[in-house]
Structures are given as structure tokens and as C-alpha cells.
Amino acid sequence: MPVALEVEAPSMIDSIGAIFTGAASQMGGMMVPVLTAGVAVAIGILAFTIGKKLLKKSVN
Questions:
Q1: What angle do CA 40, 45, 50 make, to 5 degrees?
Q2: What per-residue string of b and e applies to 12-41 under the rule 16 or more CB within 10 Å gives b?
């Protein structure tokens, strides 16, 4: 006589946890280009400021 195994459906807490885990990994993936762009902008501003100071020194 075959024995039927009960397959337990994922609980509500597991489902909610999976949603948040997926959302967190997607947010992490989206933050990388934003942070990279932020670093690039910061380096650009720093280079512009240094260049401006050097230009003023060379003119005077």
C-alpha cells in the first residue's frame, strides 16, 4: 500500500521572508551603479577644484 507524503505548503512567514530577501538582493544590485556614479561625480568635482586652484596659481 503506497504511503502518501504530506507536502507542507510554505508558511506565510516564509513567503514574506522570501519577498524581503528578494527585494533586498535587488536593492543591493541597484545600489552598485548608483554608488559608482556618485564616486565618479565626487572625483570629477575634486579634480575640477584642484585644477581651478592650480590655474589661479599659474596665472598669478
A1: 125
A2: eeeeeeeeeeeeeeeeeeeeeeeeeeeeee
At residue 14, the pLDDT reads: 85
Instruction: Quick: pLDDT tens for 14-39.
Output: 888 888 888 888 877 788 888 899 99
Stated pTM of the model: 0.52
Dist CA 30 CA 33 (whole Å): 6
| Distances 2 to 8, 9, 30, 31, 44 between C-alpha atoms, Å | 19, 21, 50, 52, 71
